[in-house]
Amino acid sequence: MRILLTNDDGINAPGLEALEAIATELAGPGGEVWTVAPAFEQSGVAHCISYVHPTLIARLGPRRYAAEGSPADCVLAAIADVLKGNPPDLVLSGVNRGNNSGENVMYSGTIGGAMEAALQGLPAIALSQYMGERTSELDDPFEGARVHGPGLIRQLLDHGDWTSDEDFRLFYNINFPPCDAASVKGVRVAPQGRRHGVRFEVEPYHAPNGRRFMWIMGGSQTAPATPGSDVDANMQDYISVTPMRPDLTCHASLAALRDALEQG
């Protein structure tokens, strides 16, 4: 199996090292693991692409590249340049330092990398490790992902919906809970949720030279969330798996809106 790795925390992130270990186990002795990851941290860029300026890409070692762009740029660079003519069998994005469940999905560069792979017709999975007080006490805060990741990905490859004849191919979002590997209770297939009362905010800041800047501030990651959702599962020490597609249409609203707006 040929596996492509990317992330949004950057080429030197410890989560990427954890993903490399997961991918190496999955690929097996005869497989290949390729990495094309951002040269610098790209958290919060979502599905951004560098459309108006070129992206520098550098080979750092065998099957290892860094690009001065977003995770989606990295996937495009891998397909169109690094692995041109030999596309990967699977794209893994992560392991993100911090969760990408709930509303975080909409901002996540980790999700953006997996989404771009899906748009390119490739099987893709995003992986994130929820962080908290219990993971901060671990020698390896990515322990849950390392231990449970390979087996869960194998299950997804065997049982997930990987059909490619749809307009929008599915990809999968995995979030490991904020606990040690032994405390993980199992897996829950769950929809994307929403933390109640949590919003991103802006905190103004004045530099010593008098210029005004802003810091973007995130909200509580432990706030109560939609029951049965990905966040809810993670907070109960379950791994969440969410099937996703790059289609923001609210299909449940289409019929009523057509009736109201397409008269005559």
Automatic annotation (TrEMBL):
Chief subcellular location: cytoplasm
Positions that bind a divalent metal cation: D8, D9, S43, N96
GO cellular component terms listed in the entry, alphabetical order: cytoplasm
Keyword Cytoplasm: yes
Bound cofactor: record note: Binds 1 divalent metal cation per subunit.
Subcellular location per the Swiss-Prot or TrEMBL entry: Cytoplasm
Keyword Hydrolase on entry: yes
Keyword vocabulary terms for this entry: Cytoplasm, Hydrolase, Metal-binding, Nucleotide-binding
EC number: 3.1.3.5
GO molecular function, a single term: metal ion binding
Residue ranges constituting the Survival protein SurE-like phosphatase/nucleotidase domain according to the UniProt record: 3-196
Named cofactor requirement(s): a divalent metal cation
InterPro entries xrefs: SurE, SurE-like_Pase/nucleotidase, SurE-like_sf
Domain of life: Bacteria
Matching Pfam families: SurE (PF01975)
UniProt enzyme class: hydrolase
Catalyzed reactions per annotation: a ribonucleoside 5'-phosphate + H2O = a ribonucleoside + phosphate
Gene3D superfamilies per record: Survival protein SurE-like phosphatase/nucleotidase (3.40.1210.10)
PANTHER family per record: 5'-NUCLEOTIDASE SURE, 5'_3'-NUCLEOTIDASE SURE
Protein family (similarity comment): Belongs to the SurE nucleotidase family.
Task performed by this protein: Nucleotidase that shows phosphatase activity on nucleoside 5'-monophosphates.
Record protein name field: 5'-nucleotidase SurE
Organism: Paracoccus halophilus
